[in-house]
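User: Can you fold this complex?
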Amino acid sequence: MAKKRTKKHQKKSGLAPGSVIYTGEKSDKKLFLEVFDYTPEEYIEKELNSIEEVFDFKLTDCVSWINVNGLNHVTEIEKLGIHFNLHPLVIEDLVSISQRPKIDEYEDYLFVVLKMLYHDADENIINEQVSFILGPNYVLSFQESEGDVFGAVRDRIRQGKGRVRTMQSDYLLYILMDAIVDEYFSIIETLGYKIEDLESDIFEGSIEETATKDIQELKKEILKVRRSIFPLREVISRIEKDESNLIQQRTKTYYRDIYDHLFQVTENIDIYREMIWSLMDMYMTTISNKMNEVMKVLTIMASIFIPLTFIAGIYGMNFDYIPELHYKYSYFILWGVMIVLFIAMLIYFKRKKWL
Amino acid sequence: MAKKRTKKHQKKSGLAPGSVIYTGEKSDKKLFLEVFDYTPEEYIEKELNSIEEVFDFKLTDCVSWINVNGLNHVTEIEKLGIHFNLHPLVIEDLVSISQRPKIDEYEDYLFVVLKMLYHDADENIINEQVSFILGPNYVLSFQESEGDVFGAVRDRIRQGKGRVRTMQSDYLLYILMDAIVDEYFSIIETLGYKIEDLESDIFEGSIEETATKDIQELKKEILKVRRSIFPLREVISRIEKDESNLIQQRTKTYYRDIYDHLFQVTENIDIYREMIWSLMDMYMTTISNKMNEVMKVLTIMASIFIPLTFIAGIYGMNFDYIPELHYKYSYFILWGVMIVLFIAMLIYFKRKKWL
Amino acid sequence: MAKKRTKKHQKKSGLAPGSVIYTGEKSDKKLFLEVFDYTPEEYIEKELNSIEEVFDFKLTDCVSWINVNGLNHVTEIEKLGIHFNLHPLVIEDLVSISQRPKIDEYEDYLFVVLKMLYHDADENIINEQVSFILGPNYVLSFQESEGDVFGAVRDRIRQGKGRVRTMQSDYLLYILMDAIVDEYFSIIETLGYKIEDLESDIFEGSIEETATKDIQELKKEILKVRRSIFPLREVISRIEKDESNLIQQRTKTYYRDIYDHLFQVTENIDIYREMIWSLMDMYMTTISNKMNEVMKVLTIMASIFIPLTFIAGIYGMNFDYIPELHYKYSYFILWGVMIVLFIAMLIYFKRKKWL
Amino acid sequence: MAKKRTKKHQKKSGLAPGSVIYTGEKSDKKLFLEVFDYTPEEYIEKELNSIEEVFDFKLTDCVSWINVNGLNHVTEIEKLGIHFNLHPLVIEDLVSISQRPKIDEYEDYLFVVLKMLYHDADENIINEQVSFILGPNYVLSFQESEGDVFGAVRDRIRQGKGRVRTMQSDYLLYILMDAIVDEYFSIIETLGYKIEDLESDIFEGSIEETATKDIQELKKEILKVRRSIFPLREVISRIEKDESNLIQQRTKTYYRDIYDHLFQVTENIDIYREMIWSLMDMYMTTISNKMNEVMKVLTIMASIFIPLTFIAGIYGMNFDYIPELHYKYSYFILWGVMIVLFIAMLIYFKRKKWL
Amino acid sequence: MAKKRTKKHQKKSGLAPGSVIYTGEKSDKKLFLEVFDYTPEEYIEKELNSIEEVFDFKLTDCVSWINVNGLNHVTEIEKLGIHFNLHPLVIEDLVSISQRPKIDEYEDYLFVVLKMLYHDADENIINEQVSFILGPNYVLSFQESEGDVFGAVRDRIRQGKGRVRTMQSDYLLYILMDAIVDEYFSIIETLGYKIEDLESDIFEGSIEETATKDIQELKKEILKVRRSIFPLREVISRIEKDESNLIQQRTKTYYRDIYDHLFQVTENIDIYREMIWSLMDMYMTTISNKMNEVMKVLTIMASIFIPLTFIAGIYGMNFDYIPELHYKYSYFILWGVMIVLFIAMLIYFKRKKWL
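Assistant: Here's the predicted assembly.
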């Protein structure tokens, strides 16, 4: 992914800063616009066809959530940005999907970028950029494509459950971010399972060939998740300290709650990271132990039969005068000697605990 | 455990923030309510049947300790929270047992979450969440289930031992937290024993098969204890700096004492952590040393008998003209040569210190 | 490179501080002077022959970009420095190419040093020092030699694209620095590819001989890139906090954008650094795995044939009385025994998963 | 030791905070009380029999050093504490020998705890807790038992050497602490010797069996010393910043001197720590090198004699028609061939540098 | 060296703080006093015989550089110190050569201690302590013995080159420190060469026996240089922030220049440190690779000849009825079979890439 991202960025380099260029994969996905406009008493939910219809919601007294899906529709997003008086760099960042999580404070709005992580149908981790513009009575959200973790938020607005309908746009931003952060728990949970599976596979020695590769892959996955989540801590803590009037004092308590959740997530990631490192060590000792076992088999076999073969060799010599050859019981005596030797060896190796 | 915790959290995601949901294991444990209400002169100790009986103790002039066991009784706890004017997020956190140790300061109460660690009958580490609400003249404590480390605290209140009956609720909170932190010492002591046992087992080579697993398990246990204890340092240090009137100046000295204890605990944990890492290294060298020993045996056996076998092979050949075969003493001379070779080899290996 | 750099520095030691000495490789490259002078309406682009012609551009009302290539022309650069009232240490640093990225604030100009990294035709990383002097209405840039990453900047000035022609010199400095930082993405992208190539080479075991060397080389390359880029973060963050009037408030937003980009770059470098360290571990386990495989082959061969050879040896002995020798089917029975032994061994090793 | 300490602490848990309990090993050592009382002109040195005799020295105008040995005499120390108006927690800490080095500032005295390290007769490191109470004109010192590093301090008071008799109690505290810190140098010097001895033992390969254990023991010793010394840095730096009048401005220069010494000590400890880690690595390579040597011997022996034995085996076969067997010089030619093969092998291994 | 230093310190412990004791190696080197006294117009250079002659230079209006060589002349240095009103601890530190680099600010002078590193004739790193006293119009410098890196500074004063003669004593201190820091570049350059030499030696496998030792020695050397240089960064940064009038504002720019140089040096040291750690890893893989090669030779030889020997053994048996023995072409057929087996083996090992 690192590869892809930098490649994308590459394409942009050489352009004027402020050029509004979509850096994601090209696609002809339709622009999908969705608006929630609500007061404590009532709410409107609409799917819009053109970006111009959105403009009206800027000035309503109600709280409006305008959700824009499809960052490839650059022109429309630029229009929207201009209508909402966004700084050129903000508009540029909205469609440039390789941002780090960050917050930029402007005079009459906050610009927040973060990463929405969720599993797709095949249990792969999807990493999608979500940007928010928090204005006095609206929240704009921008997603790469449809499909998100905001289902429960929509339900809550519709049903007037919880506090959401009675609060301002800053609380709306909070529940949207909270939904994203909650999903992180599910992501790291899966990572945790993977580590434990790998661990038992290594202990049982069942994945000899791919162990190193699996460990390395998991390590990279953790590094990527870490990179998507860690910077968000600073974002939240800057929201808490925000001095504009966009975030009200009473809402800050809620943001602190997100902060605590994030802390838990990042703490777990760091523990997983430490565990994955020791997996490598563990695997190394497992290999060494196996080699030890192999060597022991070789040594036992060789130590027992090489001397016996030597003895047999002695009496296979063709010297004219080997007195023992002519005694009647020599052969049987020799067998006796060899069996004694054999048993002595076995006892010796038993004592050394190699058997 | 990490697995379980995140799973639990999972179940909650999608719900409105502020939803009061018990995240621990379902159980039909009864709600157990216990109240201590005391002045320097006298004290009342009661077990209550319903949450409503607790309400009266909010307004008494005495210091009240209300101990609530059984976080699965969500409705009752919610009622209690509303009666004591707790913030919705606090009530939510009370029953959500996957919190990090933290302190939240509200206008007229402090909310403290920490982890109570103790050994159960089977010497397993039990990790239970305890929350405290410190009000002007009461302390509410919330535990997952009965069974705690507060026995001595109860005795002290009953017997009026020490300063507790003459002090305010902030001192009560202190002795409760002190009891928990004191138990940490016992926990890390056990960890210390386990490390030393493992260390000598590895030195003696008696646990070849399970060593890696044992080390890994111990490492995880230390990481978990660490995670439960470390954040508490910041909690205590924020209590010390607290500017509300809930914590009196003279009590802060006592909290500093807890802080010092915590520092000792965490210092020890970090030392154990470093030691467990070197255990892995030690184990690795132990394996390598053993392999060395195995290889030496093999090399000595092979080096001694392979040349001798070769010599025997020579005189087992069937050439028509091998002059040595016909000398009368050839056989005995050969034995002599072989014995000399054998001894020379032994001396050689002795010199190399392989014997 | 470390070697070269310190060597160069060496030559200077013993000289008075403030001595203006070129520390790069001697060369007879011509001095190349280029000037862009522009207003929103029009622009002049000139190549100049002598340093004196530059002087006039100091006082024009337009924004001037004076680009000086060829730091070996020390005398001319010194003249230029004196004309622009630069501090002696600044002039010294301009031609001393072993500077760390840094910013020095003087009363009426800023002095910024950074490293321009780009790939040459052979995909080697070129590390060239670029210094900027930002004055009220001019930017001086100093490069070791011709060839840079500013092509797009020139085009933008010529075509009046973007905001550049309408902004002041602080914005010009921004787009120059932005061009350099954008190029960093391409550099680390290549590093990422190299690591992944190395990783798959190691997994496939195809580079046995050179793996250690390749890893070590890559590690050094990353360390060098890191050293060129990391200090720049502090430079940018000091520009943002600058309190002189040279950087206008509205331009600072743009510098913050560079800062975010840099953060992404450095984050990636650190991830690559961690990955290269685990490559070494991976390689180590790969070696050990191979040795295990070698040992298994040896052990299997030896364990099967040594006992069989012993048996053959027995019946090669020349004792007068070996009853078995004279039974008619002995030889065939023996073959039977040996084949059974052989198969038993194979099954044993199959069970141990060595086959 | 960690084990012992926590065990001791254990015994206390469950008791009321503020309970004055001696946590060291039980012993019936007598209480030993020593007082120095001095002015620039004269001094009194006394050994006292009962704690009450000490009380008078609190109010003298002279500087008094009251040295209490024998922390098992809890009742006496408690009396002393009450007479000197010490906080209950201070009295508790005085006799609890498992404190971290720390400083607690009270209104009219400072309470300092540190660790006195010195070698006993058998070169073991003795780790004894020393506490100081610094009052306006007295210093109380508390030691576990007789035997300390203050001999030179006593001499200096007796002889009026240096500045001690002309300075206040803060200077007395300084020279006592300085004496303790000076002893640290001797301790880490010994650690340094031990590391270097171990290092050369490992290089010479003379301690195969115990190397891992020795390294581990040394590592633990360093960790323990580190833990005793590191927190002291913060103690001293807080003394320097102290704003009470107990530490005069002119004395602070002296404390800064201790601070510098401590810095040197801790720096050395960290270097030793790093060196002991690389000892482990070194030892690992030493083992591997030895195994290499063992393997080479085996390989050389086997590679030379196995083919020769094969050749001998060929001509030991009993086929009716083996033409070579009947040529007259076959045997001698074969010897020639074998000697040539032997020498070729030797040259081959020589070239590979295995010989 | 660590050993020696602590040993020296040892000798002092037990003495009163402030005792002026030379802690270096005893020697009867003569005291060497050198004075430069200059104004922009003229300068005096003198070698003095007695310490008293120095005293006059304290009050001249010119800038004076008084260079004292020979710290064993304790009495003279004490006299000098008293004449210049130095604090007793400063005088003590002047002759105690085991100081860390540090700066102490006193009312009317600065006391700076640093380490002068240079190569002696045998390319060993000499580590000599240099102390400076910066007064309003003089700089005192104290060296252990003659021989320093100040040659160029002397020349510059004599020839009036650069700014030195026109500036105050703070600039003199700067060029002296700059000369020392410049020499550090040469030191770390040599370290860099050593690492690269070691690296190629290890790659080529030419230093099997001493590699571990060489790596360890180099590691120690880097640790020592690091310890001498690192603390200096803080010294310089405190000079920059100094608020006394001893360092003028315009000179601070120069000190910042030293700071930048130091940063480069320390950055390089840390890179070298990281590289030396990976050298150890590299060496380890080199050993393992060699062992792999050894094992392969053994395995190939054994796998080829052990089965062949077995076959030969079969037909060496003395059974009465072995039909094959009597066929005419048996022997030649057997040779054919063995050659085919031999070639099959070779192909097998070729395919496994062991050949």
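The mean pLDDT of chain B is 87. DSSP finds nine helices and seven strands in chain B.
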